[in-house]
Write a structure and sequence with these properties.
By secondary structure, the protein is of the alpha/beta class. The protein has helices spanning 3-34, 42-50, 65-69, 97-107, 128-132, 148-157, 162-165, 201-206, 244-259, and strands at 54-58, 70-75, 81-86, 110-114, 140-146, 167-173, 187-193, 216-220. It is 37% helix and 18% strand. Helix 8 (201-206) links the parallel strand 7 and strand 8. Helix 2 runs parallel beside helix 4 (97-107) and helix 4 runs parallel beside helix 9. The radius of gyration is 21 Å and the shape is globular. The protein starts with a helix and ends in an 8-residue tail after the last helix. Residues 83-245 form the Alpha/beta hydrolase fold-5 domain.
């Protein structure tokens, strides 16, 4: 090998090492960003755990499995139907316990709140059956989520395994479908916050063409984007004019109204 060829090989190896270094750094930075999550408000999480109308259990057998894997919320008066609910991007599942415990108590839905891979639902390749299988004995399931979690929920609802998993509908909080479900017979509803600055009511209505013809969009008064959870303010969001407890009641009552509450739960 000539001196020129040796120099060429060294140059190529140096460039290759540089590219690998850049890729490794990019992966490290992305991993650090993805695992920097918005945590649930402590008082809201404690209130959810103390709510006697529901029982909350971690998805797993260990004391810290809820933080790793997510939670299942079981109402005292279960309707027999379930909801798989995907968190928004980089929001921990616990941040939704207070709002979703209200939904469970009002509707009788058993709610599974998994932690997506990388805390980003788009990066979670598990099919919906992987989540519905976590709670045996439920034959009818809704899938839903908040923000980007709702976008992924729509994809799960349109997945090949969804009919066999018993998926009957989609419930979206501050979210919309990016894939086309308009030709399906799924039940679908989207709830928009009046002052949502990240998924505005107009944007959610504009995307409603991807939902089945019988679907509906409801605007909840006073809520912003973050009102669907309890994790603090988000940049670019509007200003909510209702507190967390009021938002919880609005959300729970709205879901109960649109899906229909079993007679055993009506007061």
């Amino acid at each position: 090998m000539s001196a020129g060829e040796r120099r060429g090989v060294r140059l190529a190896l140096g460039i290759g090492a540089g590219v690998v270094t850049v890729l490794v750094l990019a992966v490290v930075v992305f991993a650090a960003w993805a695992h920097t999550v918005r945590t649930g408000d402590r008082s809201a999480v404690i209130a959810a755990w103390r709510d006697e109308a529901v029982a909350i259990a971690p998805l797993g057998d260990g004391p810290f499995d809820g933080a790793r894997n997510g939670f299942v919320i079981t109402p005292a008066d279960a309707s027999g139907d379930g909801l798989v609910f995907l968190p928004g991007a980089r929001v921990e599942p616990a941040a939704y316990l207070w709002k979703l415990s209200g939904v469970a108590a009002e509707t009788g839905l058993t709610i599974v709140v998994p932690r997506p891979a990388w805390n980003l639902a788009f990066f979670d390749t598990r099919p919906v059956s992987a989540f519905t299988a976590l709670v045996p004995g439920i034959d009818r399931w809704y899938v839903g989520g908040h923000s980007l979690g709702g976008v992924r929920a729509c994809q799960l609802a349109g997945g090949a395994d969804a009919p066999d998993a018993g998926v009957v509908g989609v419930i979206l909080f501050g979210s919309y479908c990016a894939n086309d479900l308009s030709q399906t017979d799924l039940f679908a509803v989207a709830f928009a916050g009046e002052f949502d600055g990240l998924s505005t009511p107009d944007e959610i209505v504009a995307a409603s063409g991807n939902l089945p013809e019988s679907s509906a969009v409801f605007v909840l008064p006073g809520l912003n984007h973050a009102s669907f959870g309890d994790y603090g303010a988000q940049s670019g969001d509007g200003e909510a004019t209702v507190d967390s407890d009021t938002a919880r009641r609005e959300i729970a009552e709205a879901v109960a109204q649109v899906i229909g509450v079993p007679a055993s739960l009506e007061t």
